[in-house]
Design goal:
Blueprint (H helix, E strand, L loop, with lengths): L15 E8 L2 H16 L4 E7 L3 E4 L12 H7 L3 E3 L6 E4 L3 E7 L2 H4 L3 H18 L4 E4 L2 E6 L2 E11 L2 E9 L5 H6 L11 H4 L6 H15 L4 E5 L13 E5 L1
Parallel strand pairs: 1-2, 1-11, 3-4
Antiparallel strand pairs: 2-6, 3-5, 6-10, 7-8, 8-9, 9-10, 11-12
């Protein structure tokens, strides 16, 4: 048990730095996540990365090649890299049209146990899905969020030195047919997306913004600074930050 747990009041919680980025390679995303985790494990602010990834596959601690349905040469032909990563969960297909949300939070300073964090992160995703007029469902023993029996968001996290990494992938408008052919998460029903389920079109930037807002509310971050670039990435002259309070 961490002796620092005790749910500090919102005013004592660290600010949240939200990085709303465009498309990153998986290597760029993992490098940025590692840098932020190192900084947060010290005394830096909490952070969250939001971006989208090119097509590829990550396999977590509960996954194996048995979850991949195609022969290896099919992935090579499509140019889809397969990367083993240190998160929970199994095989996850990344596609354009998803929003990747990786919170890097100091659990000890937030007064949260790993179990409480997982519950609150799942609830955050459900809040986002509900904002688009849908009725999200969650399962206590299964990470993720479903709509009408189809999974719409996948969750796989890691915690080291009481700092969280990895997180959530939300399907906004990916090619859903590819999920049946590529990997199996244990669901007999196919994956779904906000585009398929919502009554109106949903844009990727809107989902990113809603996730930051709901994350700040759920974890009681009083101050949020939004960045559209990080210094470790390729220089972007037009990058800037916007701060707001809840």
């Amino acid at each position: 048990m961490n002796p620092n747990l005790g749910h500090p009041p919102p005013d004592d919680r660290p600010p949240l730095e939200a990085y709303l980025l465009g498309t990153l390679t998986l290597a760029e995303l993992l490098a940025l996540q590692a840098r932020l985790a190192y900084e947060v494990s010290g005394d830096a602010n909490a952070a969250v990365i939001l971006c989208d990834l090119p097509a590829g596959i990550t396999i977590g601690r509960h996954g194996s090649r048995a979850h991949l349905r195609w022969p290896a040469h099919e992935y090579e032909t499509r140019g889809w890299p397969i990367c083993w990563v240190g998160r929970g969960g199994g095989c996850l297909l990344h596609l354009p049209g998803q929003v990747v949300c990786y919170p890097v939070l100091p659990l000890s300073r937030l007064g949260l146990t790993p179990g409480e964090y997982t519950q609150q992160l799942t609830a955050t995703v459900a809040d986002v899905i509900q904002e688009f007029g849908l009725h999200p469902q969650t399962h206590p023993e299964r990470p993720g969020v479903w709509v009408a029996g189809r999974q719409i968001a996948q969750i796989g996290i890691a915690i080291r030195n009481w700092v969280t990494t990895f997180g959530v992938v939300i399907n906004v408008n990916p090619d859903l047919a590819l999920f049946r052919a590529v990997c199996c998460e244990g669901d007999t029903a196919p994956m779904t997306s906000l585009l398929r389920e919502a009554a109106h079109p949903v844009r990727l930037p809107a989902v990113r913004q809603r996730f930051v807002e709901r994350l700040a509310e759920r974890f009681h971050f009083g101050r949020v600074s939004v960045f559209h670039h990080h210094p470790s990435l390729t220089p972007n002259i037009g990058s800037h930050a916007i701060a707001f309070r809840h």
